[in-house]
Amino acid sequence: MTDKKEHSELEIEKTIVETTHKVEDFYHKNKKQITYALIALVIIIGGYVSYTKLYVEPMEAEAQKEIFRAQQLFEMDSFNLALKGNDKFKGFEDIAHEYGASKVGNLAHYYAGICLLRTGKFQEAIDQLEDFKSDNKLVAPLAAGAIGDAYVELNDLDKGVKYYMKAAKMSKNKLTSPIFYKKAGQIFEEKKEFGDAVDAYTIIKKDFSESQEAGDIDKYIARATAAKESK
């Protein structure tokens, strides 16, 4: 028993030694490349910290000041002025362009997209909204849904309903999901895809029964079901 134990321990020690030698051998053969990689990693980390402290944070603060007046005008439905600005303040378009690396610059893409949507410039609205990046459970679906609105206005119903469904599924919340499932259902009906319309409306009835959209959803289900059965 003791011999077996000693033999086992010797095998383990042998494996450790061999592995160590392999690692050392690998290091010596690739010493230059490993050193360069470590130096590069330090530079990247240091560069990122410097970039954040010396560039991004000051940009963020400046962009925050710039966007304040445009947001006020947006809330007053002065969409053209909020979008373009004037000689006294920058509008969302300029803020998005000049401060794109900041969070505020990113948000300006969203605001600019909505302004363009509200003023009938649908393709430009899509371009701005696609540049907006967010994982916020409320704002991200609203942006995707607004892209859907723009495509529907351009009479591209396929892309419109695609974005409505994307917006509906992005976060299962009772504020945005039922809105976009209902919009999707209506476009499915317009496209004569009544089965998909029934499915979209039924999700509202089943999963969002307390939402405003669920109040009259039975009539939508009945209408789409009848159309489906009559095809």
State the separation between the terminal residues, measured CA to CA: 82 Å
Low-confidence stretches: 4-10, 12-24, 42-52
Strand-residue fraction? under 5%
Helix content percent band: over 70%
Shape annotation? elongated
Mean pLDDT: 81
Q: Give the SSE order as H and E letters.
A: HHHHHHHHHHH
Using only CA atoms, what is the Rg?
Answer: 29 Å
DSSP, total strands: 0
Number of domains as seen in the coordinates:
2
The major sheet is characterized as: none
The secondary-structure class comes to mainly alpha
The tally of helices reads: 11
Structure characterization notes:
- With 231 residues, this protein is mostly helical.
- The chain folds into two domains: 1-122, no CATH class; 134-231, Serine Threonine Protein Phosphatase 5, Tetratricopeptide repeat (Alpha Horseshoe).
- Helices cover 79% and strands 0% of the residues.
- It has helices at residues 2-29, 31-75, 79-84, 92-98, 103-118, 122-131, 139-153, 157-170, 177-190, 194-207, 217-230.
- It starts with a helix and ends with a helix.
